[in-house]
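Q: Here's a chain of 136 amino acids. Please give me its 3D structure as tokens.
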Amino acid sequence: MNAQIERKTTKIKKAFFTLAGTFFVCLAAIGVVLPILPTTPFLLLAAACYIKGSERMNYWLNNNKLFGGYLRNYREGRGISAKGKIFTLCVLWATMLYAVIFLTSVLVYQVVMLVVPLGVTIHLVRIPTYSKPKAE
């Protein structure tokens, strides 16, 4: 009886971690186009959840065209490409400046909407810049 309960508990835990991992991948995907939402922490959380929940989903995430290389480079300490940093910072600042200028006139909101991208910018600049090794 205990073994049966343990198997059910294990299945429920695996299902929970797989579902949580999928939720975090969705947030990371939204973060790719919505600069205020960070992509990397959600990818790392998804990877951790998939490790505990599903070998198949973990394999998929690490070999995914959109996230796989990004995740590997970050996890191995190589960083983010210069192109990725520039794109992210341009979209981030364009979005935030647009919001500050056209979407709100409340000073507190405007300050927060400028402090957040400043923090993201500092974080991105401090991450190593990855460049592909040149073929000889």
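Q: Can you summarize the key feature?
A: The first helix runs from residue 2 to 33.
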